[in-house]
Amino acid sequence: MSKTLLFSSLVTSFSSFIHSESHPSLSPVSVKCTLSSSSLRTPQLFITRRTNEGLVPRLVSTSFSTRALSANFSASDPSQLKSANKDILELLKSTSCHPIFVRLGWHDSGTYDKNVEEWPLRGGANGSLRFEIELKHAANAGLVNALKLIQPIKDKYPNVTFADLFQLASATALEDAGAPKIPMRYGRIDVTGPEQCPDEGKLPDAGPPSPAEHLRHVFYRMGLNDKEIVALSGAHTLGRSRPERSGWGKPETKYTRDGPGAPGGQSWTVQWLKFDNSYFKDIKEKKDEDLLVLPTDAALFEDPSFKVYAEKYAEDQDAFFEDYSLAHAHLSDIGAKFDPPEGFCLSG
């Protein structure tokens, strides 16, 4: 961060403080920020107070620092985000919450509408899913449990936005389950209140009358194409559907009755905590009644355009991995507002 930008922020912050406090000894004042030497790391802040003797400058001791002020110039603190990533990995080990974290990231970003320019009205990953009004949308049933899991990490790292944390948790869960490295960037800005939440009905339904048409309606609205629709559908290789939440699936199967995690539900794959291309293989074969196939899953092998990609991914896991990682990063980015505008990547 440049010293000029830092000083400007310091002056603005301190001016706001002065004008918001009832402090007669500091009024009327002017605020000036100076740098006494090129090696000074913390700026010196002077206030000038009008007295009977004229204008008297006085050095004010402040707690501001370049580190503290950096939050004004990016939505999330990169060092805190890295630490949060380590905590997420530990949480995944102890709870096997990979699927619900993937869903958390998807559902925060999947509200984007390319036809709306204004943020946050356009939707996308903006942390709005933390608010009760959006958590109560039918498509988000059960995601309150994901928020309960992630909230202690957010409390521990207050300079990480919810929008970044949801997307970090989603990508980390996928990679920990065996997915390829996803080219994620961070720096998403959060919405500030529930009035900025999207209207209900932005996310896909499991059993619409015309499944392929419905998938295109939802994902084309976000600017995604048929290849991305099919690749992203492959994330169903993780997780289970619970009838008490979605209305789909069996209460339990031989693959889910013993967990891990809370038992029950019906999974799409046998090893439902392993990310691979078995989702496409199992849908194509349809040999196991204990594995779930939703109407929108079956459409991938029924629609001519979708089928090209579904067949390819069933045969070529490397191709699926490559296309999935790019599609996931795309979904995570669209609609989000970044600070800095280009975002930033986590290294190491």
From TrEMBL:
Residues 238-263 are annotated as: Disordered. Residues 160-348 form the Plant heme peroxidase family profile domain. Its main location: plastid. Residues 241-257 have a biased composition (Basic and acidic residues). One of its GO terms (biological process) is hydrogen peroxide catabolic process. It comes from the Eukaryota. InterPro entries: Ccp1-like, Haem_peroxidase, Haem_peroxidase_sf, Peroxidase_I, Peroxidases_heam-ligand_BS. Pfam families: peroxidase. GO terms for cellular component: chloroplast. It is found in: Plastid, Chloroplast. Its cofactor is heme b. The keyword Metal-binding applies. Keywords: Calcium, Chloroplast, Heme, Hydrogen peroxide, Iron, Metal-binding, Oxidoreductase, Peroxidase, Plastid, Potassium, Transit peptide. It catalyses: L-ascorbate + H2O2 = L-dehydroascorbate + 2 H2O. Its EC number is 1.11.1.11. One of its GO terms (molecular function) is metal ion binding. Belongs to the peroxidase family. Ascorbate peroxidase subfamily. This is L-ascorbate peroxidase.
